[in-house]
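Support request, please re-run this one:
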Amino acid sequence: MKKVMAILLLALLFSGAGGLAGAAADSQKNLLAWWKLDAVQDKKTPERVGDKADLITGNFKLVRGLSGQAIRFDGFTTLITRKAPDFPSLNQDFSIEAWVAPAAYPWNW
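Re-run finished. Output below.
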């Protein structure tokens, strides 16, 4: 269960600003990172704020989303990684926002 929760947290972190498309422009000026998760090229997915491409590993595939494409995580092995020196400093409060489409709803909550 801990592994599933850790992967869910990572998925939430890296899907970061999927819901920001309709947000006001001034709320986007303080973004540290934004993975739209709509493209994969050479096993990398673009992060829009830092203009980086982060490695995506595990079992994943591009699928049709509500708007364009989306990356489907398998829920167990899919990770997006970036080397720590390339990641912005998190030296103050921050929040995480994500749109998540679970394949099945758990009954054990």
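Residues 2-19+34-83 form one domain. The first strand starts at residue 44 and ends at 47.
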